[in-house]
Amino acid sequence: MNGLMLQKQLLVSSLIVHADRHHGDTEIVSRRVEGDIHRYTYRDCHRRARQLANALANLGVQPSDRVGTLAWNGYRHMELYYGISGMGAVMHTINPRLHADQIAYIVDHAEDQYLFFDLTFLPLVKAIAGRCKTVKAFIAMTDSAHMPQDSGIACLLCYEDLIEGSSSNYAWPNFDEDTACTLCYTSGTTGNPKGVLYSHRSSLLHTWAAALPDALNCSARDVVLPVVPMFHVNAWGLPYVACMVGAKLVFPGAGLDGRSLYELLEAEQVTFAAGVPTVWQGLLGHLEREGRTFSTLKRTVIGGAACPPAMLQKFQDSYGVEVLHAWGMTELSPLGTIGTMKYRHLTMSREKRCAVQSKQGRAVFGVDMKVVDANGQELPWDGVTSGELLVRGPWVVRNYFRNEGGNPLRIDADAHGWFPTGDIATIDADGFMQITDRSKDVIKSGGEWISSIDIENIAVAHPAIAGAACIAARHPKWDERPLLVAVKRPDARVTTGELLAYFEGKIAKWWMPDAVVFIEAMPMGATGKVLKNQLREAFGDYLLV
Ligand code: AMP
């Protein structure tokens, strides 16, 4: 017997309709690439998203057509989020930090029909325009006064002209909630980038779960600043979450340095911000140098790479900002786990609680996870035994776009499909998952695994160290041994011996790095992760010579 409840398709457009109707005068504030601060409301955003949908229809965009964006976090990008997906087309957010060849490959693979870009990326667009076979026009996200002259791009349109020339009279269409809404390519370090194609349904379910109190805990009383880019897994879903709960949104544009972020956080009274550890490092550095504190910031979600306990402690103990350590992937829309405390953790000592918070957290409802050994056998939740992390759920990828790389799923004895994350993790009895490594980054010394993340976390707690990465270096006796690659803080002095002495008593003796290499700057990837493959190429034989 079926239930007798109304059927309503879960569509992304319903989020902006809700935000307009119930929070119409709540602000969206953006630092623009033109240099100024722009402010308007959800009502304005909704109106312009409808104008954009009309403009796209006039350009001939059909349902399921892919429309690309190369843009910072800002109000025009927000309009594209709703205008493109809302009309039934697929918004393809492109990471501008990728190499131009990779971007050209992605645009071609996705068969993007139009490409919207912020003026910052004009040189990039010029470099790839001739290679984008499917793109009918490039649209500069600016007004006519700021349009580039003599760009050499065959078909260049102006965003504000398109909006101004289009009516706001547009009714969002109703269609199947399984329809694709957004496409996002993973920035894998090997092989071609793979497209993850989210549906309206998966995005809405993810939004509900992400907004929950034990997830991002967002409400209409929050001012949300997503530092995490809208081109990296939909800014972790925040442009959707903010509409669902009616939070004020603050977009930082291209200003991601410590000073610009701090100014915006204070001026707009931000209560909640989200970003990767490298961005927060810049912000904390600024606060320390200038002797500032936060007056309104209450929580920050840190993910995308492991948040070192030293960073967590600094936020909480020095600035009174609660850290939520989260883990996710492009393939998970992205939220998988988040480190919010359970009741019994509240009475723990500060140190013990910090140790729990440093883990990547517990699964949000909707995500099922397990760790398995090399034979696919499930491992115990004892907080010690590590294995490969598998996940499943309604916002986990089933297959990559155009079947790139073949079916990724592992089928278990009960015929359930699980997505292998490529992360190595433990899960404790409370369900807190802790990542110890990427499977391709693990250090296998004499057949035993050493966690590179544990070693890096200790290294960056040393006052002279700004960044650290621990890699597997080939070793004649043990196959692999840990090698620590470190970047010193400006003007700081530390020797190899002093740094290694700092590890004593903090890890097992056999985990101690065999050597330290100091470098000027860490090679960083497009999504704020250290490029360990480059470090392995440069220093993999360091212990052999
Ligand atoms: P991406 O698809 O670019 O978001 O990358 C996903 C990968 O980033 C995961 O598979 C992890 O290896 C890594 N990652 C994400 N969040 C964390 C975290 N909190 N701690 C450690 N690694 C993380």
Brief summary:
This protein is 29% helix and 24% strand.
In whole angstroms, the N-to-C terminal distance is 72 Å
Secondary structure tally: strands: 26
| Cα Rg | 23 Å
- State the helical fraction: 25-40%
Widest sheet, order of strands:
2-1-11-10-12-13-14-15-16
Name the bound molecules. adenosine monophosphate
Biggest sheet architecture? 9 strands, mixed
CATH superfamily of the domain at 13-20 and 34-248: ANL, N-terminal domain
Which CATH class of the domain at 13-20 and 34-248 applies here? Alpha Beta
Write up what this structure looks like.
The chain is of the alpha/beta class and 545 residues long. Among the domains are: 13-20 and 34-248, Rossmann fold; 443-544, 2-Layer Sandwich (GMP Synthetase, Chain A, domain 3). Helices cover 29% and strands 24% of the residues. Strand 12 (272-275), helix 11 and strand 13 form a beta-alpha-beta unit. Helix 2 (42-58) packs across helix 3 and helix 4 (100-110) packs across helix 5 (122-129). The mean pLDDT is 96. The site of adenosine monophosphate (AMP) has 21 residues, from strand 14, strand 20 and strand 21. Adenosine monophosphate (AMP) binds next to strand 14, strand 20 and strand 21. Belongs to the ATP-dependent AMP-binding enzyme family. InterPro entries: AMP-bd_C, AMP-bd_C_sf, AMP-binding_CS, AMP-dep_synth/lig_dom, ANL_N_sf. Residues 19-401 form the AMP-dependent synthetase/ligase domain. This is Fatty-acyl-CoA synthase.
